Amino acid sequence: MQTETQSTKPTSERKFIRLPNELAEQVKVLAQQENRNVSNMAQVLISEALQARAS
């Protein structure tokens, strides 16, 4: 019998998006400048954009 273990880490859904090549390159450059991986940089940019829209 298998038991599930509960993680204390919050989970997030994984989403896949397609970016135009120019936009993907801009995200890549920003990620390198901020020493982040590309997916983390995209998450930061999306979060910042949503916060800016909310205010």
Automatic annotation (TrEMBL):
SUPFAM superfamilies: Ribbon-helix-helix. InterPro entries: RHH_5, Ribbon_hlx_hlx. Coiled coil: none annotated. Residues 17-53 form the CopG-like ribbon-helix-helix domain. Pfam families: RHH_5. GO terms for biological process: regulation of DNA-templated transcription. This is CopG-like ribbon-helix-helix domain-containing protein.
